[in-house]
Amino acid sequence: MAEEVQAANILASLQKMDKVAVADEDQIMEDNMDSADSDGILKDEDDACVNGCQAGWLSPRMKYLLLTTAEVTQDAVINSSDLAKEIGDANPIYLADSIPSEVLPSEKGELREWTKALSMVFQTIAELFAAGTIPNATNLAEALAADDTKRQLYQVYSQRGAEGVHALDALVYTAKGRWETGAFADAHCGAGSGWNELPSCAQHDFDFFLAEAGLQD
Q: Is the pTM of this model over 0.85?
């Protein structure tokens, strides 16, 4: 009888813990939604973070994840372009499936320069992160316009309507996917990477909803 009472008490305790955990998860999701206004842009009043996150949301680990993903994407776009150029289709280009199909090049002759342009856009995104600036559509366009070579390539990238925001959205999408599958951690968070030395933030690390909103104007 005593064992049955003890088991019942343990079960009740576990059920109570489960309810608390669910409530905590619901509160986190509610807080994340509250951190963006109706347009999905971070609110000014949320610009303070006790963990020192840049602009109130970009934690050191999230910055490392996004910056490194941009650097990897820069090379991956070029490395995946051979098949695309061979068959005259943009779909094999790395991350092309994350960019609206109507803005992708449709002519075989366009693919060579377009892949160079897309790679350059991700290079510029990485450079902005490395310089301490959070990329968005406005400052990305400004950075691309400030350099003659980049400006010419950006004209190629945008000739069918592609915009900086398409690359920024694709960056968050692939960073999220690589993190959740463990591919990013396997490749970039091992010994000697400096990952373990980066401050963590339970509120903002790996909050990709905030990342998508934070990279908007």
A: no
